[in-house]
Specification:
The chain is of the alpha+beta class and 370 residues long. The protein is built from 15 helices and 13 strands.
Length: 370
């Protein structure tokens, strides 16, 4: 099993810290500073924005005391002695990119993913990184399912250092599990590019992926905003029976990959940039009510609201409904994809179809085998 039980007594701990930090940290707080840097790495693994763009990580006093008990206040003060390592955001901001009160990130030289192994100078109890009390029922189910999966004995040659950190954390049972405010479940496996080599005691694994899931969810959001229209129905038919990304690629005269990236950008992009994109212009011509819905929602509620609404729909379908209907089958999720034993492909597809049907959507699937 991937998870390892807590040691019965205190022991020396070994974990990854940013490369170069081993020569910087010293003094009586060195172990705690190293552990804090490891937590920041661990909390960055599932989030591309934290790894690649340096988004701040919420870290309140309550969170600090959960991990470091009474030592937290002294540790927080000690981090101020390392401004070249720990970058605290101490001012309020309502911009998600800038962070919130009591948030922190590693400075740019220390968040490349390059790491070394640090061994504590004192003995400690194993750190538990999951706030179990904050997890809802689907999250606890997914966390329990981690027990059914394991890594191969041979470690791959990683070209991306963040993947190496993820492998190391999974192998040690250092799991991260949390649902964000938009319902998505984030874990070590969310951005783990080597999910396809996981093993399971219940036999070979398969991935059941909902094709064009984000475009299905987008149609649901737009339809709820502005009602049903023939062009939205046609959009959904293409999602179900064809390939909406290829269809739009042919319309625009570009590759499928470029069209897909552009359509997804339309969901996330700032309004003033979106309106001049070729993908949005094509939507206005061929799927006018899709384009109008995206534009009106962004203008009314802010440009982020379309993406957030899509994520809420996706998570309610995949996590709240499909997952919870699929009982007795271990599952690892990556948003619109279930990884599970290959003999459970059909039950998984039935559960997903039922969940999407509640939103008047019909999914199509791509099955990926090892």
């Amino acid at each position: 099993m991937i998870h390892q039980s807590q040691p019965p007594c205190k022991t020396f701990l070994s974990f990854a810290i940013p490369k170069g930090l081993e020569t910087v940290l010293d003094g009586p707080m060195a172990d705690d500073l190293a552990k804090f840097s490891y937590l920041l790495l661990l909390f960055s693994i599932p989030y591309k924005e934290r790894k690649e763009k340096g988004f701040y990580i919420p870290f309140s006093r309550e969170t600090g005391r959960r991990y470091f008990n009474k030592r937290w206040d002294a540790l927080r003060r000690a981090t101020e002695n390392y401004p070249d390592v720990f970058d605290w955001n101490n001012s309020y901001s309502n911009d998600d990119r800038l962070g919130f009160p009591k948030s922190v990130r590693l400075t740019k030289p220390y968040r490349s993913g390059e790491c070394v192994i640090y061994t504590t100078k004192k003995k400690y109890n194993k750190i538990h990184h999951i706030d179990y009390d904050s997890l809802d029922e689907p999250s606890r189910r997914l966390l329990a399912d981690f027990e059914a999966f394991r890594l191969p004995e041979e470690t791959p040659d990683f070209t991306n250092p963040w993947q190496a950190i993820t492998w190391d954390a999974i192998s040690k049972g250092d799991f991260y599990a949390k649902r964000c405010e938009y319902g998505r479940f984030h874990s070590n496996f969310t951005s783990f590019k080597h999910r396809h080599i996981l093993l399971c005691d219940k036999g070979p694994l398969a991935a059941v992926d909902v094709k064009s899931a984000q475009m299905l969810c987008l149609a649901s959001v737009v339809r709820r905003w502005g009602g049903s229209h023939l062009d939205i129905a046609r959009w959904l038919e293409i999602c179900k029976d064809g390939d909406i990304y290829q269809y739009m690629a042919d319309v625009i005269g570009t590759s499928r990959k470029e069209a897909k990236n552009g359509l997804i950008r339309c969901v996330f992009e700032r309004t003033h940039k979106m309106v001049s994109m070729p993908e949005f212009l094509a939507l206005q011509t061929h799927f006018g009510h899709i384009a109008r819905g995206i534009l009106e929602i962004k203008q009314t509620n802010g440009y982020r609201d379309v993406a957030r609404a899509c994520q809420r729909v996706e998570s309610r379908i995949m996590i709240n409904k499909a997952l919870m209907d699929l009982q007795g089958v271990p599952v690892i999720t990556c948003h619109d994809e279930f990884i599970l034993p290959a003999d459970s492909i059909e039950p998984a597809k039935r559960a997903m179809r039922k969940a999407f049907r509640d939103y008047k959507l019909s999914p199509n699937f791509q099955i990926k085998l090892p």
